[in-house]
């Protein structure tokens, strides 16, 4: 009986994607074989998004090939804003290698008091710590308080932290995040009850 529930959940997700069409949603399972674009919207800041085009990993994936993405706003000392972007291919085989550009927009409220806004930089790092690196190809728009980033081939999507700050956060300070929340959403489809 547990097997029926497991696949029933997947069927509901697939059917909801087919009948509801493209969506703007936080933390979402989505079908990379459906031919529909999707925008993942950060729950805590609707101006921060991840945009996946139709067939982001190529047009050969059959309908029903589900993957998961999330964008979570975090707290990080010294940063104007911090985010964790999560992508899980759920074993589909795409490996997180996009064939089409994936667009990210990260919103921030303000620069540090007394600091020029155009001195802010977008940094990236992995959730398990390590060094923060400047994202040189990110474009800042001071009229909307955002950084835009387009990821193309040769780059693996996965779990990454992003910080908008005047200087790199300390190497041992990943954002304070609730990774269990995103991971729990992924595991819930496969948990036997």
Please explain how this structure is put together:
The protein has 193 residues and is of the alpha+beta class. It has one domain. Helices cover 15% and strands 34% of the residues. The chain is built from two helices and twelve strands; from the N terminus they run αββββββββββββα. Strands 1-3-4-7-11-10 form a six-stranded mixed beta sheet, with no helix packed on it. A hairpin with a 4-residue loop joins strand 5 (66-74) and strand 6. The termini are close together.
Short synopsis of the structure:
This protein is of the alpha+beta class. The chain contains 2 helices and 12 strands.
Give structural attributes.
alpha+beta; 6-stranded mixed β-sheet; 34% strand; 6-stranded antiparallel β-sheet; disordered C terminus; disordered N terminus; 193 residues
């Amino acid at each position: 009986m547990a097997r029926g529930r497991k696949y029933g959940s997947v069927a509901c997700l697939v059917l909801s994607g087919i009948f509801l069409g493209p969506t703007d949603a936080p933390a979402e399972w989505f079908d990379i074989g459906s031919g529909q674009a999707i925008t993942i919207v950060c729950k805590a800041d609707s101006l921060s998004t991840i945009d996946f085009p139709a067939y982001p990993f190529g047009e050969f994936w059959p309908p029903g090939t589900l993957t998961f993405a999330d964008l979570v706003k975090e707290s990080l000392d010294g940063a104007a804003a911090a985010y964790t972007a999560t992508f899980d291919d759920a074993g589909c085989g795409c490996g997180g290698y996009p064939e089409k550009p994936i667009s990210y927009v990260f919103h921030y409220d303000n620069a540090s008091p007394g600091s020029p806004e155009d001195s802010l930089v977008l940094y990236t790092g992995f959730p398990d710590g390590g060094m923060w690196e400047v994202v040189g190809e990110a474009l800042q728009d001071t009229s909307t308080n955002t950084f835009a980033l387009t990821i193309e081939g040769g780059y693996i999507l996965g779990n990454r932290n992003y910080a908008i700050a005047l200087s790199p956060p300390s190497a041992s300070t990943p954002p304070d995040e609730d990774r269990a929340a995103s991971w729990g959403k992924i595991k819930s489809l496969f948990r036997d009850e």
